[in-house]
Amino acid sequence: MATAMTAHHDRPLLALTMGDPCGIGPEILARAAAAGATGAAVVVGDVAVMRRAVAQCALLLPVARLDAPADARLAPPGCLAVWQPPGLPAGLAGLTMGRVHAEAGRAAALCITAAATLALRGEVAAIVTAPIHKEALAAAGVPFPGHTEMLQAAAGGMPVRMMLANDELRVVLVTIHVALRRALELLDFDAVLQTLRIAHRSAAAWGQAAPRIAVAGLNPHAGEGGLFGDEEIRFIAPAVAAARAEGIDARGPFAPDTVFMRARNASGHPGEFDLVVAMTHDHGLIPVKYLGVEQGVNVTLGLPFVRTSPDHGTAFDIAGSGRADAGSLIAALRMARRLAAR
């Protein structure tokens, strides 16, 4: 017991946000803790919600309410340590599972902001966020569509980018949670070049000082010399050239229907590239998710702290059933610890 406690004490402390209390976030956190995958970690959330999740999963897992996040280091192994930030709405554990509730959105946002504050103060080494529901955020009046934008604001508004990664493919996005029409309006030379800079700089966190970056075009066949659109000619190729002039190993733009296959690093198929930059959300995330949601990890690049999350949503259709798979969350925990250790 003493050895386990000492090892627990010495590991970097992670903050795990509970996500939407009416989704599967609390359940996958409980399953990860029961599997011994959380290590030195504090759940930023509602104690009653986490106890409900433990019961929904039929787990024998003690849940401890902490007075302060740092007390998680004193919690015994095999215990789910929960810190309840001030201001959480009352009665969260009584909300109907699998439904949009403004109180749930407000609670999820408050937990994210509280975890970001802990990270900015250096009280935790990284944040791992459970899934939230965008409609619940909107119902609560939260002025951000998702985690990335909320964490960006909490950290002072510096440029950030979303990366989705698994063992075979890493994709960084230029635009994220906006309508496709709006995404096209946001794409320009500066947005692409900034993404390449952030991707290049962030790659050092996982041990690649000079990553090979492929840039996916926006249009079919990367525009086919302007026949199918001229964005590649007007600003994507010039941004790639500018990045190369700065010493960044960026190449492209390549046809988006084949570049992800070329970058995939699988058994018997070493990838030609270390990561791919894609112009829009679905362009980039569909190929990663197709390879397996259970292993995908979302990483926010550009923040002054490490943040990862599973690559799936709240799964309202199965929330409360105890059937949620914690695989992607466990992968996010592993990634967070790896990045925080560098």
Which secondary structure elements does this structure contain, and how are they paired or packed?
Blueprint: H1 2-10, E1 14-17, H2 25-34, E2 41-44, H3 47-56, E3 63-66, E4 80-83, H4 102-120, E5 126-129, H5 134-139, H6 147-154, E6 161-165, E7 170-173, H7 180-186, H8 189-202, E8 213-216, H9 231-245, E9 250-254, H10 259-263, E10 275-278, H11 281-290, E11 297-301, E12 306-310, H12 327-340
Parallel strand pairs: 1-2, 1-5, 2-4, 3-4, 5-12, 7-10, 8-9, 8-10
Antiparallel strand pairs: 6-7, 6-11, 11-12
Radius of gyration: 20 Å
How many structural domains in the coordinates?
Answer: 2
CATH C-level name of the largest domain: Alpha Beta
**Strand share of the residues?**
15-25%
Overall mean confidence score, pLDDT: 92
Assign the CATH superfamily of the largest domain: Isopropylmalate Dehydrogenase
Number of helices: 12
- Compute the number of strand runs: 12
Helix content: 25-40%
Shape: elongated
Poorly predicted spans: 1-7
Q: Under the CATH scheme, which architecture of the largest domain would be assigned?
A: 3-Layer(aba) Sandwich
Order of helices and strands: HEHEHEEHEHHEEHHEHEHEHEEH
Separation of the first and last Cα atoms: 28 Å
Which characteristics define this entry?
342 residues, Isopropylmalate Dehydrogenase, 12 helices
Q: Could you provide a short overview of the structure?
A:
This protein has 342 residues and is an alpha/beta fold.
Tell me what you see in this structure.
This protein starts with a helix and ends with a helix. The protein is elongated, with a radius of gyration of 20 Å. The chain is built from 12 helices and 12 strands. The protein is α/β, with parallel strands linked by helices and about 350 residues long. The longest helix is centred in the N-terminal third of the chain and has 19 residues. A 12-stranded mixed β-sheet has the order 3-4-2-1-5-12-11-6-7-10-8-9, with helices on both faces. It folds into 2 domains: about 200 residues, 3-Layer(aba) Sandwich (Isopropylmalate Dehydrogenase), CATH 3.40.718.10; about 120 residues, Isopropylmalate Dehydrogenase, CATH 3.40.718.10. Helices cover about 35% and strands about 15% of the residues. Strand 8, helix 9 and strand 9 form a beta-alpha-beta unit.
